[in-house]
Amino acid sequence: MVTRAVASEPPAPAPVPYAATEEDAGPGSALVARLGTSRTAGSWLGEDGRTVVAVTDAKAAAEVREAGADPKTVRHSMRDLKSATKKLGSAPRVPGTAWAVDYRSNEVVVRGDSTVSADDWSDLTRVAKGAGGFVRMERTEGAFTTRINGAEPLLSTAGRCSAGFNVTDGKREFILTAGHCGPDGSVWFADDGGKKKVGTTVGGSFPGDDYSLIEYDGGRAGEGAGVVSVGNGQGVRITGVGDPTVGQRVFRSGSTSGLRDGEVTALNATVNYPEGTVSGLIETNVCAEPGDSGGPMFSEGIALGVTSGGSGDCRQAGGTTFFQPVTKALAQLKVDLLVAPKAGAGADTAAPAPSASTGAAAPDAASPGSPAAGIDASTLLSRLADPRNVGPGMLVIGGSLIALVATRWIRAEQDRKAYQRYYSTTWG
After folding, report:
1. Most confident of 1-10, 298-307, 309-318
2. pTM > 0.90
3. I need a labelling partner for 44 at 20 to 30 A (CA). Which of 29, 153, 217, 295 fits?
4. Is 210 among the catalytic positions?
């Protein structure tokens, strides 16, 4: 989950454009955009790392081959698939359901969790049949929930959450996290006693989207803005921001379950949480647990998303996890990502955040990114305990670094019960 940030004034990062349509994100985006939604049905990475584009006619297939990608002829176009999702979205909302376009199977997949009644599932199945013969219905274990509960280092009266990435508007610095973590005005602390103030939520969107900004108390984050923690005192440099593609291997860091990896399974997913509907999400098979909400998803050092919610766990069930795309959040909030300097550059400056072409490596060859030196959990603990660090430059909040310290005592039954009493309204 995240980070530490920079004590010195960073240069304003260059703006990062948001992909015009979610289905066009990824390495096949130019081909999909050129051929159009009536002749294509998405793109993804094959096991060898090559781009595959779904096409509906032989001429489109020839153009894809000429461009150096692999075509796959399918029956249904993206226009057909989007028409089906639109019909599903117009039906009465059923909490506990989610749907997304599966590019590789050329289907719309509708999932219903354990909270969906038999009658509601039957009604939704009838809607799906009317949407076309390419809608696949699946029941899933567990429940689709926002992942705010759990023993977390970011604490407020709104609940517990995780920091995502550090961002700036050129004047102030913020934490980008999940929108369901708390409404505007939520005050966040790094301790359950309310003595180490982190900042205040100053904007965001939920439901509909799932992102928010926490303005650092004093306006500055601290040292190491472009580093995300991956546990065991280790960190990864974040050097840019981009959109993922289906089939890409991705990594998620969370203070509850640590560093986990998996694959992007769909884009532009819709989830009907109990609190409301969120659309435009990245669907993955990376596991997550309560407490991981708001934490960062990335690959090859490129920021991709912040954890929204999902089902399952990281012990037995696995499950599906959804992420808010970072690119859209940055564009909507009018902020830029703070990124790490390149290896060998000055440690206290933030480089501009470039847009990135993701998916260059084969999925099994992908890595979180380049390691960041000098991150030590014991140093973190001493800095958090120093009252001089409350305010500007205090924080290394939020990421797994704090969790390395926090989980040592949160696992003690006495402290666990204290947390449970303190957050009895949100304890899962």
Report:
1. 298-307
2. no
3. 295
4. yes
Token digits of residue 366: 């992908």
Please report the pLDDT score of residue 391 as a whole number.
Answer: 30
Give the active site residue among 156, 180, 209, 253.
180
CA distance 122 to 393: 54
Dihedral over Cα of 93, 94, 100, 105: its sign: negative
55 within 8 A of 40, measured Cβ to Cβ: yes
Give the separation between CA 159 and CA 148, rounded to whole angstroms: 7
Label residues 334-347 b or e (16+ Cβ within 10 Å = b). ebbbbbbbeeeeee
| Catalytic residue selected from 293, 299, 311, 400 | 293
Nearest to 48 by CA among 66, 69, 28: 69
User: Does the annotation mark 120 as catalytic?
Assistant: no
CA–CA distance, 280 with 325 (Å, rounded to integer): 8
The tens digit of pLDDT for each residue in 394-406 reads 223 333 333 333 3
User: Is 415 among the residues known to form the active site?
Assistant: no
Sequence-distant (≥ 6) Cβ neighbours of residue 244 within 8 angstroms: 25, 26, 250, 264, 267, 282, 299, 304, 305, 358, 359
Encoding tokens for residue 121?
Answer: 């599932």
